[in-house]
Amino acid sequence: MSVDTYRTCAINYLRKKAESDRSAALASFQLLLDKAVGIGDHSTDDLYKELDNALDKLVDAEDRLATIEAHF
Question: Domain ranges in the chain?
Answer without folding.
Answer: 3-71
